[in-house]
Design goal:
three-stranded antiparallel β-sheet, globular
Length: 171
């Protein structure tokens, strides 16, 4: 059953956002702990990050936001398109206006990567609607900017210039 009352829905949406941020924050903390030589602290952060993921997923489902794959891909397309057309251009413009170089860099990286994500989702949705899966052997993600390449890693990232051998591979 999907939550119907406005107040409860608003609170669950806020809880979903909070749990989602906690999940990501703890994964980032785990990566830092690992770099600093604290593997068990990293393990603890990763484990609790997973618990936060479980909480977020439960709220998401209660909100009725989980659909079939084509619907989920459409939600992905809409989210990425919003980020490309509205959110990141405004954020980047504000950062430029306020001369916040690090924010200009991170918003530029995200904006450029999100364009690729939207296109990948559009292709996947078209295939899923006809009952087919996309043909992907490997997905390569730049660990600096999030640039995404399918099946072939570039020699250097076209967005940030990171070397291709640093890309994270998803098989």
């Amino acid at each position: 059953m999907v939550v119907e009352r406005d107040m409860t829905r608003k609170f669950l949406e806020e809880a979903f956002a909070g749990e989602s941020m906690a999940h990501m924050k703890y994964l980032i903390f785990a990566e830092q702990a690992e770099k600093e030589g604290f593997p068990n602290v990293a393990k603890l952060f990763r484990a609790i990050a997973y618990a936060e993921f479980v909480h977020a997923k439960n709220h998401f489902i209660a909100l009725g936001k989980l659909g079939k794959t084509p619907e989920n891909l459409q939600a992905g397309i809409e989210g990425e398109t919003f980020e490309v057309e509205e959110m990141y251009p405004v954020y980047k413009n504000s950062a430029e206006f306020q001369k916040e170089k690090e924010a200009v860099r991170t918003t530029h990286y995200a904006l450029e990567a999100e364009k690729i994500h939207a296109e990948l989702y559009k292709d996947a949705k078209e295939k899923a609607e006809s009952g087919k899966d996309v043909e992907i052997k490997k997905v390569y993600i730049c660990p600096v900017c999030g640039y995404t390449a399918v099946d072939e890693v570039p020699e250097r990232c076209p967005i940030c210039g990171a070397p291709g051998e640093k890309f994270v591979v998803f098989e």
